[in-house]
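Subject: for your reference before the review

Hello V.,

The reviewers asked for a structural picture of the protein, and I figured it would be easier to keep everything in one thread rather than splitting it across files. Below is the amino acid sequence we used in the manuscript, unchanged from the supplementary table.
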Amino acid sequence: MSDKPRKIDLIQQFCILKNNKILKDYPNVVQSTPCGPESWKKNHNILVSSAVGEQDQPDLFYRSMRMEEAELWLGGNGYDAVIGDGHQGFAQNMLYSLKYMNGSKAASRYPVMLQFHVPGYVDKAREIGVANGAQEDGVFCFGIGWKSKNGAGTNTAGLKTLWSQRADSNETARIMKSINKTLTPPFTLETAQSNFLYQQKIINSLIFIESIQGVSVAAMPDVVFDKLMKVQKCSPKPFDTGSIV
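And here is what came back from the structure prediction:
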C-alpha cells in the first residue's frame, strides 16, 4: 500500500470546493457543473441521482452525512474526514442509508448521501482482521470512525505488517488529527502501540480511503438541491418520476 493518497475520480461529483458560496447554509459547497447530473429521480422529497449504481453492488458503499463531511470526501481529503465520536458507517445498501435522510430533521442533519466506489475494500479489511461491519436492521455497515463497532477483530499478520509500515506515515497523522477534533481526551499513537484493536481502527480507515476509486453525490433533499441550483442561477432538468434505484 502506497503512503500517497490515490487520486479520486470525481467525474460524477455534484459538489466541490469552489469560489462560489451558499451563504450561511453550506458556505463551502457549490455545484461543480452547470446543472449537475443529467437527471434525478424524486421520491418523498429526496432526489436520487440517476448516475449512481444499482444497490447492493459489492464495490459500492453509501453514507448519508453532514455537508461538512461531504466537502472533505468530494475534495479528495478523506484522511481529514474520519470522526472521533461515532461509528461513521458505510453501507452497501443504498435504501438503508436513505433512512438517515427521511424526515425534515434528519434531512437537515444529513443533507447529502455520497456513493463511494471502493473495489476490494471488504477483502482487504478481512485481511487485517475486520470480520464484518456493525449490523443494524439486517444490514452490515463498515465503520471507519474511532468509535466504530465492526465485528470482533483479530490480530492478523496482515495488520501487523501494515501497522509497522504505516504507523508513522503522514496519512496516519492526518487521521489521528481528524479523530482528535471530537475526541476527549485526545488519543496518541503511543497508546495505539499496545492495543491491536486501536491499530486495526486506524489501518481500516487507511484501507477504505486508499481503496476509493470514485465519489459521487447519490441523493439529497430537494430543498438542498434547490439551494445549489439557486447559487448557480440555472434551472434543473425535469425530474424523473421513476422509483428509487
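For the response letter, the relevant points are probably these. Confidence is low (pLDDT under 50) at residues 1-19, 31-35, 235-245. The CA atoms of residues 101 and 220 lie 8 Å apart.

Happy to draft the paragraph if you're swamped.

O.
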